[in-house]
Specification:
The structure is a homodimer. Chain A is built from twelve helices and 14 strands. In chain A, the strands form three sheets. A six-stranded antiparallel β-sheet of chain A has the order 6-7-3-4-5-8, with helices on both faces. Chain A has helices at about 10-15, 90-100, 105-115, 200-210, 215-225, 240-250, 265-270, 295-305, 320-325, 345-350, 370-380, 380-395; strands at about 55, 65, 80-85, 130-140, 150-155, 165, 180-185, 195, 230-235, 255-260, 285-290, 310-315, 330-335, 360. At the A-B interface, helix 8, helix 10 and strand 14 of A face helix 8, helix 10 and strand 14 of B.
């Protein structure tokens, strides 16, 4: 039977269930604070995961305060044995600051969030991250195309993914957003997961897929620009989503690419990063500026060939809306990927300076996004080098 | 002399200055808590108003905690004698709730904000509103095309407009977001203001111009849709921005227009509202649903001819992101006009349900926006009736 209902008050957590791989830790007890509806009240499956929402009732899993992370799957779900979480950069930074950099406090904070919410969604930033793992059980009605044993990355946010951690994060040093982790996670009927490529480490693939919405949307917007050879400014160009977006912009036909970085160390990273075609660097112009300083950053971009036809905001600090808007030409587009973006600051900021710019909320999902990002890593040695260096520094 | 520097420590507020119209209340004392830089440190004028930012230094006026609202103008500025503030709906609602509906507390809250910040920006919502008044003095370098005596509405947000209130809001009953008010406000070099039309009341014009970005952007997006006769869903269609956006969508060639409202009373308002062409109603289908209930609202829109190619969010309550995304067809567009929109809820919500939708931050500025909205009011009796009824109910 696919969906093991159990028999009484809180059956799901205590039962051992048949699993496809043998790694299961399902005999372990689960955090007591997570209670679920009783077996007799089980809701019908929803492709959006509504049946896993415990409170408040009726909202989508991303908006829920608390999810039901029971290991037994509904007919269209997939259960994944988790190997690694990759915390969203904004979330990790907030947690790091809140814990004063103390690894034990940081670890306790993550465990507390997952235990109380049934998912890893930072209550302050609202953001999550993603994970890698091995498919353990696939419901008969799942349409994700996965099989038990597949090594995958989830491409929906941790902020809506039911999750249980069973190892107290014993193998995490608390110094990086990449979190070795044992436990299980659930994918819904309408979800997104990608098989990990065989030609790169899981760590690299996860790190790439985590931000793969950014290069995909950048590629689409730059490709659709009405200006020939549009000027593209990437704010935070030496970061993960920034460097991939720069490469995607080039692939989509960008003219001048201006990379904005906060200091010389990142400028040097960019300078050392070649593009695949051996003609360009990853970016054409490098500008050192504080993205939170609208006047400073827009002046710097202007003097480097701007204003930009497309500005891509990839830095995870608050207060970058005004600078991005001022750096963009009338009729241009700003893509906000930073989870630290303030909606009202963007809306009112543009109005306040009479800026006729199209402002896009960086949707993390564009069809084919994971493939595009992985292909960029394969073909762009400069970007791959920057990702690899980041991973090496943390290991 | 255009810019009266004054002579000593806090000269600007106490001096009487020559003004173009005689309405000035400049001899009055100003709130003591607002201090300014001394005359010897006066910064150069900036078209963006940077010279009016007191703290934190270097940010744009919208992002500033505190502005310098001194009445003396820099050479490219315009001073306006204020007649009426129109508080942003989200801000008014928040203030109303925080004051428990007590008009005196509400009034005190608004006065406190303006006195301490030098602008009417709600610290909780971040939003402001707009104002009407009479141009009092125009700097010799102003390019806004205004003359003393012009009756205007400012089309930049109050959240970045230097403002002083001098009448303690004595004529405001605290029951409506339209606030009769005496005092002065400042427009910067790069700002937006529209002369009030002669064929309608200032109250109506202000009410229309307050939301004129919404119909303008809706018109642009619907007009550019790749689908012929696109289905347009307006969430909050009986409201100000919603009803104007519905009319703008029709003008731009929308096929079916679905109006979503929260209850029967608003449905009736919509049902009674004809379109100018006598062929349609203002909307074609009326759906009663809670916009915060993603499954409920998307199911209702689907059964009324959806999913939508363009969904316009015009309700000022939090939590509408998921419903708007789920109501929109793959490849479609969501325009978020509500200041209660959460950036992360939108970004992660779309990703979480694998929705390939373009999500736009509703920019309040589109060239020609005020004219388009005023023209819609002139030609669409249904919309004008709804606006007028709203005004009559509050007077």
């Amino acid at each position: 039977m696919q969906f093991a209902c159990g028999s009484a008050k809180r059956p799901a957590y205590r039962r051992s269930v048949p699993v496809a791989t043998a790694a299961g830790a399902f005999g372990q007890s689960f955090p007591e604070r997570i209670t679920t509806v009783s077996a007799t009240q089980l809701p019908a499956a929803s492709p959006l995961g509504l049946h896993r929402v415990l409170e408040p009732a009726g909202v989508l899993p991303q908006a829920a305060w608390r999810l039901d992370p029971r290991p037994e799957i509904w007919p269209d779900e997939v259960r994944v044995r988790v190997q690694r979480l990759n915390l969203d950069a904004a979330s990790f930074r907030q947690l790091l600051e809140a814990s004063g950099g103390d690894p034990d406090k940081l670890k306790a904070a993550v465990l507390e969030i997952v235990a109380s919410r049934g998912k890893m969604q930072n209550p302050v930033t609202g953001s999550g991250g993603m994970l890698t793992g091995t498919v353990e059980e696939v419901g008969p009605q799942s349409s994700l195309g996965l099989e038990p044993g597949d090594k995958i990355a989830t491409l929906v946010s941790l902020s809506l993914t039911p999750l249980v951690i069973t190892d107290e994060l014993a193998n995490w040093d608390g110094k990086s957003e990449q979190v070795p982790c044992a436990g299980h996670a659930i994918l819904f009927g309408r979800s997104i997961a990608a098989k990990l490529p065989a030609d790169m480490s899981a760590e690299l693939a996860l790190s790439v897929m985590d931000v793969c919405g950014a290069p995909a949307l950048t590629h689409r917007v730059v490709g659709a620009a009405t200006t020939a050879s549009p000027v593209v400014a990437i704010i935070g160009a030496a970061g993960k989503s920034g460097s991939l977006s720069a490469a995607a912009a080039r692939k989509a036909g960008a003219g001048t690419i201006i990379g904005v970085v906060p200091h010389e160390a990142e400028a040097e990273m960019l300078r050392d990063a070649p593009a695949a075609d051996d003609l360009h660097g990853l970016v054409d112009e490098i500008v050192i500026a504080d993205a939170r300083d609208p006047v400073g950053v827009s002046s710097a971009i202007a003097s480097a060939g701007g204003p930009a036809d497309v500005t891509v905001v990839c830095v995870d600090v608050p207060g970058c809306e005004g600078g991005a808007i001022l750096s963009t030409a009338q009729g241009g587009t700003v893509i906000f990927f930073s989870m630290a973006t303030s909606f009202t600051a963007a809306a009112l900021g543009a109005e306040g300076v009479a800026a006729d710019v199209t402002m896009l909320v960086g949707n993390g999902y564009v069809p084919g996004h994971a493939q595009l990002a992985i292909d960029l890593i394969r073909t762009e040695p400069g970007v791959r080098g920057m990702f690899q260096r980041r991973i090496d520094e943390h290991s």
